[in-house]
Amino acid sequence: MKNKYYILLFTLFCFGFSQAQVTNEGKPKSWKLEIESNKALNLPSFDLKSLQVEDAINDELKNQPYRFGYEHQVSLDFKDGTWNELKNGDRVWLLNIKSEGAKTLNFLFDEYHLPDGAKLYFYNEDKTDLLGAYTSSQNRDDMQFGSWLIDGDNIWIEYFEPANAKFKGQLHISKVVHGYRSVMDIPRLNKALNSSGPCNQDVDCPLGPDFDDLKEELKKSVAMVVVGGNGLCSGALINNTNNDGAQYFLTANHCVGSSVASWAFRFDWRSPDPSCSTTTNSTNGPFNQTASGGSILARNVKSDFVLLEINAPLPTDWDLVWAGWDQSGDIPDFTVGIHHPSGDIMKIARDNDSPAKNSRPFNGIDDMDNWFLDEWELGVTEPGSSGSPLFDQNGRIVGQLAGGRAACSGTANNGDFDYYGRFDVSWDYGNTSSSRLQEWLDPTGSGVVILDQFPPLQIFDNDVALAVDNVSGIICGDEAFPVFRILNQGNDVVTNATLIYQIGTQSEISVDWSGSLAIGESEEIVSPTLTLSDGNVLVASLEIDGVQDGFPDNNSMTRTIDNFQDATYETETVILTLLTDDYASETSWEFYDQDGNLLAQSQGGFANNTTYTVTFEVDPDSCYEFVILDTLNDGICCAYGIGSYSLETGTGELIFEGGEFDASESTNFRISDNLSSIGFDFSSGLSVYPNPASAFVQIEINSNEEFNVELFDMSGRKLYQTQMNGAISIDLNAYATGIYFVKIGDGANSITKKIIKQ
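The structure assignment produced for this chain is given below.
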């Protein structure tokens, strides 16, 4: 396909923008409004050296949370910040807090009560770390709330309250925690990412074929927890016999120092590039899935457990797992721990030996019942791992970490022990539901001894899955080329199966497959050529011959294929007309071909409330995508000005128009192959060389006709124009290194070629 376009601007522009990396949904109002605020409230210094001396001793222990911060006792509320009333009656409150040298700050509220529609945000001075919006969904009867950690020592707290709020919100900050050992200090890669010992294994390191599949599920249950505002523990979501996703969270009782109402939880913090018992640093994970607030359901010191219920709803798109459990007390064949040592990214440890049942003095009692692990074979635990789950060989929780002396010695472990509170003791110890797990995890009174995870992970004897490759939801053309594959996910070998597929209203096609597939193996069945029409729906199903499939949900698929039958246009040009809103610097656009190649994009500083026109030249029998973006997620209409945009053909036929969107909006369309073909055929007889070029570029055309030649830069600005007949040399010496475009046309047809100036 020829990549060609010509940009005609009413106003020439050249600009760039950067967007803050955010961790949650929504943006503060102040980011796009001129709002007054007070100077930063500076917190006093403290004796960091004495804390570090204490940490050097306490870091050898695991029977207490891992301390990362100093608590400033404060009393801050709405009178300490600045209120701003907007024209429509909405109100915005800002408070700026600075604690010199902090790696992170986090905040504990003893009054948090928001009306519906109100939003609370936390962000740092340069807007590279954003938490929020917190809303009325975090309201509790006791009014307590704790934030996650925000990177930096200069933090803004912003509260938005709509004019129609049913009541005035309440906020009172009782503690500000100065993080001197950070769990978010990503740019410097020292604490706590990579703060654990080098013998630790990232959770995605290989653990063994007997547990790797289970690990892929179980890691989704584990979280790091900020406890008491300035300490760290680990824990896991745990299933109950209702299999309903009740937000039960198991961790260690010794992690509970003060109210759990202000605890903050972070799930799925793991490295995409795992470090496996080496001195190589782990890279930071892409997710920041945080929740706030818990309530104690049951606890006891006998097995050092506490069961919480996380108050804020956990989003379904977090892909979480509630781990299963075994309350039999049977001794496991081997054990696995998943945890966050020293507040580091998620790690995993394995002991290949069976643990021993033991009793030992612990936190004020003489006989704490535990599983004793004499030495880890792979990885270790550390302070901060406290409360993390111990899994048996079947991937079920049998305990949570209470203490021990295991640690790294270089890239090996030190050969010392750990001990975990026993789940079977936690199950029925004591006389009431407040001291045991039984009533909470078996609310139906079923009496089951073993419960698997939720959502379930089950391997059936007979289970085939249908996979379809090479078919996306959008296809440019009249044919599709799917590849149907059979995947055996069951225990039994599959030797025969039948595939049935249909496209649109065409006749069904049946394909018999035979072979031999063991569990985990797959094979291509057929790769047909499908003829597409308007409103294509591809339906396919797969069945094992002669047996009942144990899990038929993965045996079929339905996919709608859009090949732009209702969005096909006869044109050689597509014209963008853009009217900017009151915040034009937030707006940008991109133009792609059917292969995802970026053909053009905005390059300059748009002016507010100004109209721009851009003309793209397009090829016949080709597809394109236009994308418009807004950096603050509020489109170009209608809250902050009446912006709009439209795409039209060269003859004025409307392709799309809009303006009301959030972060972005895309439009796909197809150019017909029915365009008349007159003029010179550029598919042959044209040479542009050398390319890249350092001084001159030569253009040669195998024709005696006269052609128009134009040179453009990346912004669409025309730099040079001339006529040619046969051959021409363009002098590039006056231009900077970079990408340019040369357009060659004969009045009927034209082509644009990219040139690289070295």
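Interim note for the steering committee: The domain at 464-561 is CATH 2.60.40.10 (Immunoglobulin-like). The CA atoms of residues 361 and 367 lie 5 Å apart.
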